[in-house]
Amino acid sequence: FSLAAGSRGEFMGRPAGILGAVTYKKDFNYSDDTVTARSSFNATLGRELPESKFDQIDSSEELRAGMLLSGGVELDGGGKIGALYFGNVAVDDQVFFRLGGTQEVGGPDIEDYTEVSEYIANESLLYRERTLSAFQVFGSHVLGEHGEAKVDWVGSYNEASQEEPDVRIAAYKVLNRSERYRDLSPAEFSGFPLERIWRSVNDSSYTFGLDSEIPLFETDEERYVKLLLGGSFDSTRRDFSDDSYRYGSRAVQRLPLDDGTPLSANWMLPVVPDDRVGLSPADVLPLNTATGNANFALSRSIAPTTYFAEQNIVAFYGAFDIDLTPRLN
Question: What is the pTM of this model?
Answer without folding.
Answer: 0.70
